[in-house]
Specification:
Largest sheet: 4 strands, parallel
Strand content: 5-15%
Oligomer: single chain
Order of helices and strands: HEHEHEHEHEEHEHEHEHH
Structural class: alpha/beta
Number of helices: 10
Strand order of the largest sheet: 3-2-1-9
Helix content: 40-55%
Shape: globular
Distance between the termini: 25 Å
């Protein structure tokens, strides 16, 4: 998938469910709950239980979704994620080696950046889009809006503190999509295996974000 196809994809669906799980089966259930609620982009963080196996399994289980890998820190993890079938890659930082490796593998990569300098550095290195992380710590929608003047041509995906309630404001401020984790998957719901609750949150999130 090239960068243009990736941008079309995220502009269509607008929401990425970010899954970090301590148990493999739990990760499956979280992904299925999000997908049932209408989320089509699912990121499995590399510090989850058996992330490569989970990505491979979800590629089979959820053919209407795009399954990616996140929290990738080094080339070995990138290679393993791609080998497992990851369709997009997120990193928490800007690393030109990882960006180049993903380009060579023809898999979209979205590095994490915070300052304008980091965002520009990531984009100029060939990033498919740029993750702004942690966005709520630096002002949320206000920060995204303030970046639009000088950096409006760079597609930004804020994560870190994104919630069902504040996601629409981030998109209205100029973000191309949002990554949602803890607020979509409350720990209490996971502990109680209340997958219906998570599905309903996903539905609300998708409805709010795709109508913009």
């Amino acid at each position: 998938m090239g960068s243009e196809s990736w941008l079309t994809l995220i502009q269509t669906f607008r929401v990425i469910a970010v899954i970090r799980c301590e148990q493999f089966v739990q990760g499956q259930q979280m992904a299925h709950a999000a997908a049932t609620g209408g989320i089509r982009l699912i990121e499995i963080t590399w510090n989850s239980d058996r992330p490569a196996d989970l990505i491979t399994q979800l590629r089979r289980d959820l053919p209407n979704c795009w399954i990616g890998a996140g929290t990738l820190l080094n080339p070995e993890q990138v290679r393993r994620a791609v080998a497992a079938g990851a369709q997009f890659l997120f990193t928490p930082h800007v690393d030109q080696t990882l960006i180049q490796l993903a380009i060579e593998q023809q898999v979209p990569i979205i590095p994490g950046a915070l300052s304008p300098s980091e965002i520009v550095q990531a984009w100029q290195a060939g990033a498919s889009s740029v993750k702004v992380f942690p966005v709520q710590a630096v002002g949320g929608a206000t920060y995204i809006r303030s970046l639009q003047g000088p950096l409006g041509q760079i597609p930004l995906i804020p994560t870190g503190g994104v919630t069902v309630d504040n996601a629409p404001a981030l998109l209205e401020a100029g973000a191309i999509a949002v990554g949602v984790s803890g607020d979509l998957f409350p720990q209490l719901a996971i502990d109680q295996e209340d997958w219906h609750f998570i599905t309903q949150r996903a539905k609300i999130l998708v409805e709010q974000c795709t109508r913009l």
